Request: fold
Amino acid sequence: MRLIFNILLFNLLWPLILFSQESSLEETSLQLIAQLNHENSTVRAWAKEQLMQILQTAIPLLLKEYPQLNYRGRREAVDLIAQNKTPETPDRLIACLQDSDYGVRNRAILALLDMVDSDPKILPKIKELKSPIPEVQASIQSFIQTYAYKKVEAELEQLISPSGGFGSYEGQFDGMKYLGADAIDPLMAIFASNDYQFVHIRLQQNDEARYKIRYLAGEAFPTFAPYMNGKKQDVLLLLKQVAFSVDRAESQLAEIAKTSLYFLGETHWLDREIEAWLDRIQENPFDAESCAELGLLYLRIRKEENGVKLLKRAVALAPNYAHAHYNLACAYACLGKVNEALDSLETAVSNGYDDVNWILKDGDLRILRNQPRFLKVVEHLQNKFAANPANIGGK
Reply:
């Protein structure tokens, strides 16, 4: 009770003391900065709140007093420095990464992660930091690693259409190549397990997005083959583990793993898969689903001519098979057959394919995007679902 009473009394009287006519703004700032050391978190929070109101005056004094603050004060100081948006702020926070206190370094990391995308100078500066203290060096590496994970997550999320569509197309991951070798560990971590802890909390709480990003991570490996260096064997081992998982829930991911293995030079796994599909079709020539699946597989490995043959067979057996018509449009477009692609796309839409957001995002259809017929299809779907966007998914 006595402690609570003292805190309440402090909160009532301290502003009167600080802001009396006898105290200058500079003196007030110094008194508040001293309170950042207080062992009571309520007092520290109150002092920080008051400093926020006079930040321009307080920051120079805070920087001067920083070395004399205890670890509690320095932690609070980092938050104040981060709130003072000036050209010098990133460098001041980078300096905090070498603080002896883990809490200070962690707060600096979080603040810098919010700034690094808008300031390309931050990451190179942090990569140049070296410390003889193992704990400090670990924090520096933690920032670099966390940023790489954050960027890979964000880049993969961008490949999902606003309505939830996702799939594969040639050159899909070219926009991520700037990450180079930094992408390998995040891609492996994301693809390895459904329990991966996303840096972006919103993704951690969205099971559907988590699955799609994991799927896309598996597809991305071949694009980063030139950057794998000594990690290629680890990537191949991971892909094989997923490819031959006994978990039926991961069957789609297993197919993606085999596709990536194919592009990384281990073609025999997918060759066996193709042989199995062909045997299935030979046993049941009227199986439209198997024809469509094998056609899509051929499309994934860029054998569009083979894909066209199987997809044409699928839609001949099942004329209302919307997804097969859509994938046939993609195959034709990849082959440069614009009119055939537009015919198949229009047929897909007339049979119910309505994910307009994915149609606009799908790189396989890029050759169609300036065609009047394509624009008419898009306009039709956008008008149809203006008040209720489609959420079917991609290929």
About this structure: The chain has a mean pLDDT of 91. The chain has three domains: 2-129, 155-266, 271-395. Residues 198 and 205 are 9 Å apart (CA to CA).
